[in-house]
Amino acid sequence: MRRISFWLLSTLTVLVLLFGYHTSLSSRMPTAAATPVISSTVSGSGSSGSSSSGSGSSGSSGSSGSSAATSSTVTGTVAQTEWGPVQVRLELTGGTIQQVDVLQYPNGNSRDAEINSYALPILVQETTDAQSANIDMVSGATVTSTGYLQSLQSALDQANL
Q1: What are the tens digits of pLDDT across the range 67-95?
Q2: How does 76-108 read in b/e, with b if 16+ C-beta sit within 10 Å?
Q3: Model pTM?
Q4: Domains (ranges, CATH) in the chain?
Q5: What's the burial of 141, exposed, middle or buried (CB within 10 Å: 0-12/13-18/19+)?
Q6: 3-class DSSP string for 51-118
């Protein structure tokens, strides 16, 4: 009788713990940022050791060599991922990606924020380096990388690149 009581109580305890566990999905509240959160600007020189990551800089502050080139801003569609929306905006000058801004990204909990604070700057830098959507995904941020690539490709398609 004692073994049965112990088994029943331990089973009940495991079930309570299992159903009481809150995953990152249960507290997820995707929010859209009103201003670009992650951005990078391509500098005019060929080899720069650092990237600018201020959201207030415009593509006209760096000299790109051709003043007659047209500038445009293209916003990709919102890619809905299981962790939240991802959206990218590109600033182009003469068909060259000058700046990438990540307007929306999953940030509903601290784990999302941790992953994306690491992954998004890598994705942005690879985009400005490759000047295309032909970039690698970031290990550990597969969902965000997939959404980023979808929105990036949408923006490039709108810009006819």
Answers
A1: 457 889 999 999 999 989 999 999 999 88
A2: bbbbebebbbbbbbbbbbeebbbbbbbbbbbbb
A3: 0.61
A4: 31-158 (3.90.1010)
A5: buried
A6: CECCCCCCCCCCCCCCCCCCEEEEECCCEEECCEEEEEEEEEECCEEEEEEEEECCCCCHHHHHHHHH
